[in-house]
Design goal:
Radius of gyration: 24 Å
Strand order of the largest sheet: 6-7-4-9-10
Helix content: 10-25%
Structural class: alpha+beta
Largest sheet: 5 strands, antiparallel
Strand content: 25-35%
């Protein structure tokens, strides 16, 4: 009799102590989400139907240091509770797993998050209150990074309902002309492909040959 009478109290304690799935990181994702952008503690798989969310940009090109307005919104005002957004490189010869550029002046209910040694390269929610659209400014890096796109994971709320790989259109480089080196960045170092060294050598030899012909 004593055990049966204690069961309702035990159940109440479990409900109080254990967080529900809808409370999974209401003030923003943990650092473990930096690379995968996958939600943690949501106890479900991403949705497979088309996402009712979109990322729009006020420019489809960028130059070093240029500011671009980035907007995450729900299609037909579909609300969302949480999100994480980064700009990522598209060039397969570069690092496509880390954030690029910097966000600034996050609006109410959102914040900046440190990832990949970039203190302001990730934008996320700071509150799980419903939102239909949020806009922020992103500043392009001062170096050539090739084509890029903004990538997001969006949690609709409850937390079990979310979409991964919500992508913007590709934003292309439109700055000073730079000869691509097809670098593969690894651990902060890069390796220039041998073909470019060969082309540089051939160009030098042709220049010497042309000068020799002029003198003779």
């Amino acid at each position: 009799m004593m055990l049966s009478s204690a069961m309702p109290l035990l159940g109440l304690l479990i409900c109080v102590v254990l967080p529900t799935a809808t409370d999974a990181y209401p003030s923003g994702p943990p650092p473990s989400a930096c690379t995968s952008l996958q939600p943690t503690g949501h106890n479900s798989s991403p949705q497979t139907v088309n996402a009712p969310y979109q990322i729009t940009l006020d420019s489809d090109t960028y130059s070093p240091g240029q500011t671009v307005r980035v907007t995450l919104s729900g299609v037909s005002d579909t609300a969302f509770a949480g999100f994480i957004v980064q700009a990522r490189r598209k060039d397969e010869f570069k690092d496509t797993t880390t954030s690029v550029g910097s966000f600034s002046s996050p609006p109410t209910g959102t914040k900046l998050m440190a990832c990949h040694n970039n203190q302001v390269g990730t934008w996320t929610h700071s509150s799980n209150a419903d939102k239909t659209t949020v806009t922020i400014e992103w500043t392009a890096p001062g170096t050539f990074e090739g084509d890029m796109a903004f990538r997001a994971t969006v949690v609709q709320g409850p937390a079990q309902t979310y979409w991964e790989n919500v992508l913007s259109t590709i934003i292309t480089y439109d700055g000073p002309t730079i000869i691509p080196t097809t670098e593969k960045e690894t651990g902060g170092q890069s390796t220039i492909q041998p073909i470019y060294l060969l082309l540089a050598t051939a160009t030098g030899l042709l220049s010497v040959l042309f000068l020799w012909q002029r003198l003779h």
